[in-house]
Amino acid sequence: MTSSRGSDAYRTQYLTPFIWRKLICFYRVKMASSFARILSSKRKVGILSLVGAGSLTVGFFLNREQHVNAGAQVRRIYPPSAEYPDLRKHNNCMASHLTPAVYGKLCNKTTPNGYTLDEAIQTGVDNPGHPFIKTVGMVAGDEESYEVFADLFNPVIKERHNGYDPCNMKHPTDLDSSKIRGGQFDDKYVLSSRVRTGRSIRGLSLPPACTRAERREVEKVVVDALAGLKGDLAGKYYSLTQMTEQEQQQLIDDHFLFDKPVSPLLTCAGMARDWPDARGIWHNNEKTFLVWINEEDHTRVISMEKGGNMRRVFERFCKGLQEVERLIQEKGWEFMWNEHLGYILTCPSNLGTGLRAGVHVTLPRLGKDPRFPKILDNLRLQKRGTGGVDTAAVGNTFDISNLDRLGQSEVQLVQTVIDGVNYLIECEKKLERGQDIKIPAPISQFK
Amino acid sequence: MPFGNTHNQLKMNYTAEQEYPDLSKHNNHMAKVLTPEMYANLRDKQTPSGFTLDDVIQTGVDNPGHPFIMTVGCVAGDEETYEVFKDLLDPVIEDRHGGYKPTDKHKTDLNPDNLQGGDDLDPNYVLSSRVRTGRSIRGFCLPPHCSRGERRGIEGLSVEALGALDGDLKGKYYALKDMTEEEQQQLIDDHFLFDKPVSPLLLASGMARDWPDARGIWHNDNKTFLVWVNEEDHLRVISMQKGGNMKEVFNRFCTGLTKIEELFKEKGHEFMWNEHLGYVLTCPSNLGTGLRGGVHVKLPNVSKHEKFGEILKRLRLQKRGTGGVDTAAVGGVFDISNADRLGFSEVELVQMVVDGVKLLVDMEKCLEAGQSIDDLMPEQK
Predict the structure, then answer these.
(1) Using an 8 Å Cβ cutoff, are A400 and A381 in contact?
(2) DSSP H helical segments within A362-447, as ranges?
(3) Residue B323 assigned ligand-binding role
(4) Nearest CA in chain B to A47
(5) Rounded CA gap, A359 and A428, in Å?
(6) Looking at the complex, does the CB of residue A74 fall below 8 Å from at least one CB of chain B?
């Protein structure tokens, strides 16, 4: 498989009968008649009672000697202005861009699966703002959400991804790890290295909207593929519903176990429904390649190891991802991807590469230097505490990773981290020797 | 999904077996009743407003069981839910409400004159008395399913109706999103303020969406009559006061409710009600009267008696801690209230509380005096 995507020939190659069936099913819903489109719009629910679509209990309706007659409006329909959320106390990307006009334009639309604008923005309505970071405030329920609600997603994406415009920019995908220069850090400073991303299975709804059967299908497709990994990638799957006490304890000790989300940002989006059904953790025997299934995304893929060999971590990352992709394609599946948004994930903040490559690095002197934030900024890096997002640094150890996700390729972003961490270590060494450090020139964002 | 219909379209691409929830570790009324066959029969149905079976059961799927009590595990999204999904909800109701059958009729009696006594519960023991219920406005979806527009509509109608109350019922509305710091503090001090639900039982059903939009608290100037708007139900109506005069509390309760109902009718609205289920509320456990009448009462001796549980059972009462459902009693003070909601009228239920609490206080006095309570043991009501 080549590392660049997007050619039609590549796609046709994989249109096996199996995927044809999937596509037809998909298009049957997507290109349904206008009649069915009416059925799928929440605004026109009233008409359902008139046409007596088989799935509705119209019979009961006509028999009731009560207030509602067949043919009457069965759902109170309010104008968009009465439905528009109160966002006056809100501070998230969705609230910044959801004007009454945009709401009015989009509130009657649905994706072919029936996902609505109100569902997409619910998490942002329910969670006005985060003290540390400006949250996104909306999610996608399926791949088509990004298209159907583009009038809102595009400005949100642009704000979140520092000016990337999905309308006229293309996102490069590059998982050729041989292009990486350097990437072996001094273990004296770098305690561990890690690269993570996510992948979604095309044709199945995303965690906010998926049905139980769809979620189980994601699990099956991914677990089947992972079972085909060999060599240093061979591993085992632990389903959350079936793991033993010992397995659970081992996963906790390894810091692999994820638990039901408690963050209201996630629960308000509906991602925790039916927990722990069809959720699980897969990892290779060496514990350096880990896949989470049906947590925040269909899959989260993590490559990591102790020490500073980011190069090897990224090599394993690319190899593992490409292998998994090949294995699912054998069965007629593929990842959600397009040339403007790259890999499609639930949260717009993870579009593009969905990649966060980072290290835990000890910088006792640089960490206290007042120029540290500016240096990071210019290197297009961010710092977090070693507990992950929203934690503070403990002692002198920082989690340093790439700021960007969309608009640059995986190779470019990992190279940025490598070059940047090298610079930080150089600064630390200079400060050790009593020398002065310089703030580097800002590197350009979109290459 | 609330206010979206993703599931009903998508899930029909899969078999019922593929969609059926894993209820193997569950212990709630829904899980006891929902067989794979029932799921298959009901899953393609929806109410006229688009509420589906999966919407009904989501909270029960997400919350396998509660350590103290057997939860219901399903909710209604609108009035028609109870009809469209009767195959599921009738057995749940029967199980929850002591054998209430699909053909049974429920009587409503809000005439406070029919209550005997109740004005003389000993205030040395009975610290406070309270009666609460809920009401839903016909034609609107219930909290798990309503849109923002509907919820605001409910708030508007309720505030209008409550604004027309006068006499000792005259009061004021405090919208959650507009209240000042001082108002908020006062409501907290009065123990009136309700906050965004944190119980996963409620959150999983979608009732907390858009908080605090269109939520608020209304209370009369005397602080004895309180209405919550758009919390767990469209309206929760509470009458209360310190001391043991349950009759007065119930009087005010009935008068207030009747008046509010009249005011709604004047504007062309009515409460959800039918002769089988009584007043229709979001949770099946609150059908019928939706009434919980109770007292905070000091029973340090009786509560330690080995037959305390049995006594309560025979009196058709239940105990809770003074923090409400799911709390433990503090300092020998218990919240004692009626266990039933459906199949008995409001008057009958409050009568049971009045008679039962009177007996419990008598028993407490006996035990204090070192006497046995064996000949005070009640019959099963």
Answers:
(1) yes
(2) 372-378, 410-432
(3) yes
(4) B48
(5) 15
(6) yes
